[in-house]
Design brief:
The protein is α/β, with parallel strands linked by helices and about 400 residues long. It has a ten-stranded mixed beta sheet, covered by helices on one side. Strands 5-6 form a two-stranded antiparallel sheet. Strand 7, helix 7 and strand 8 form a beta-alpha-beta unit. Helix 6 packs parallel to helix 7. The two termini are about 30 Å apart. Bound molecules: S-adenosyl-L-homocysteine and iron/sulfur cluster (SF4). Iron/sulfur cluster binds next to helix 5. S-adenosyl-L-homocysteine binds next to strand 8 and strand 10. Specifically methylates position 2 of adenine 2503 in 23S rRNA and position 2 of adenine 37 in tRNAs. Its main location: cytoplasm. It is found in: Cytoplasm.
Length: about 400
């Protein structure tokens, strides 16, 4: 495994043109308890063996977890009563505990603040639409990439999340959907996007293991098609290239936000490490490898990157690689507290979209679901952190 990716892009964040920005409480923290989702099949079998359980019990556990979203071993009636407690402890330690839930859009948008084993706080957002339900999940506590318009970026990076911690957000949401706990009645969690807190490519190994377990058919995984999983990156080129080689039809989103290096250097500090040419080259190669259209994320900031000249330049940069390989998602900036940037004029948004469309580029304005509960893209900051940590 490539350590450079694991530890946060630069080796240890200590050299090169970019450094991870660490949060004040970034320190050597203990590791989260090991969970069923963190174990290889072999490790699961060994752990079962140590409890005096034969191999087929592992399959039962996988079935409870992935097919029924169930971790309450005391209720596993197909399991020997005397072993239920020990199995629960060994395989399903509590990794995430809900602290606060906020709802918007008549209960169709639900943001949950979670506490992790070490008191860290992260958030996830469930958004229900007529034909799908999308969960936006976190992959790191905070983020070290330092984008100045992003609430998570302001926190700095505390630590990477484990596969179990990432996956538990999905399991709970899938159970809530099934049980009709979200407005609109019982349904199914259909999509997962890594657009919550953190940079997924900064925690590559855990994110990839989570992706595999979200997408594998039950009982090996939750059975949410990889085509319905989106990994969003600030533009970590080695991560994009590695993901392209995994042979998974996962959707890639690249947070571009600017059509040239001068502007992007300012808006996305990571650009000083991997510039727009390198990022777009990698994004296009991802398209060639997977045949999945790449999403280009573009937060429209008033007077900064939202003018006609920017739209034209963006269109040229994308068309340089050919037709139909990218889909642009402009989104009005969700301004964060104390930010010098604000959302674009609706008229400028329309002009921006028009220019892209006329250049033959598909683009749809993203909604800002959940912005009134600070649950929209870029607003996640686990605000009660200061009070509890
Ligand atoms: N770190 C990854 C994924 C998490 S951020 C990334 O940057 O892609 C999810 C998305 O929210 C990214 O496209 C990011 O650029 C965008 N974003 C961050 N702050 C925002 C804000 N204030 N308004 C709108 N979008 C924002
Ligand atoms: Fe991190 Fe993404 Fe926010 Fe940038 S936009 S600070 S990469 S979470």
């Amino acid at each position: 495994m490539n350590e450079e990716i694991e530890t946060g892009i630069t080796s240890g964040g200590a050299e090169g043109a970019f450094r991870d920005i660490l949060s004040k409480d970034h320190a050597r923290r203990g590791k989260p308890p090991v969970h069923f989702a963190d174990m290889t099949q072999d490790e699961r079998i060994q752990t079962a063996k140590a409890l005096g359980l034969p191999k087929f019990r592992v399959k039962q556990l996988a079935n409870h977890y992935f097919a029924h979203f169930d971790v309450n071993a005391e209720e596993f009636t197909d399991f020997p009563a005397a072993k239920r407690g020990a199995a629960a402890e060994a395989f399903f330690p509590t990794l995430i505990t809900p602290m606060l839930q906020q709802k918007a859009d008549q209960g169709m948008t639900v943001k949950t603040l979670w506490s992790l084993f070490d008191g860290s706080r992260i958030e996830s957002v469930l958004m229900r639409y007529p034909n799908r339900a999308t969960l936006c999940i976190s992959s790191q506590v905070g983020c070290g990439m330092g984008c100045p318009f992003c609430a998570t970026g302001k926190l700095g990076l505390t630590r990477n999340m484990s596969t179990g911690e990432i996956l538990e957000q999905v399991r709970v949401a899938a159970a809530q959907m099934r049980d009709g706990e979200i407005a609109g009645g019982p349904g199914r969690l259909s999509n997962v996007v890594f657009m919550g807190m953190g940079e997924p490519m900064g925690n590559y190994r855990s994110v990839l293991s989570a992706v595999r377990q979200i997408s594998a058919p039950a009982p090996e995984g939750f059975g949410i098609s990889a085509r319905n999983i989106t990994v969003s990156t600030v533009g970590v080129v080695p991560g994009i290239r590695k993901l392209a080689a995994e042979g998974l039809p996962v959707r890639l989103a690249v947070s571009l936000h600017a059509p040239n290096d001068k502007l992007r250097d300012e808006l996305v500090p990571m650009n000083r490490r991997f510039n727009t040419t390198q990022v777009l080259d990698a994004a296009h190669d991802y398209y060639l490898a997977t045949k999945r259209r790449v999403s280009i994320e573009y937060a429209l900031m008033r007077g900064i990157n939202d003018q006609a000249i920017h739209a034209r330049q963006l269109a040229n940069r994308l068309n340089h690689y050919g037709d139909d390989w990218a889909h642009v998602n402009p989104i009005p900036l969700n301004p964060i507290e104390g930010s010098k940037w604000t959302a674009s004029d609706p008229q400028d948004e329309r002009t921006f979209l028009d220019i892209l469309h006329r250049a033959g580029i598909t683009a749809t304005l993203r909604d800002t679901r959940g912005s009134d509960i600070d649950g929209a893209c870029g607003q996640l900051a686990a605000k009660t952190m200061e009070r509890h940590a």
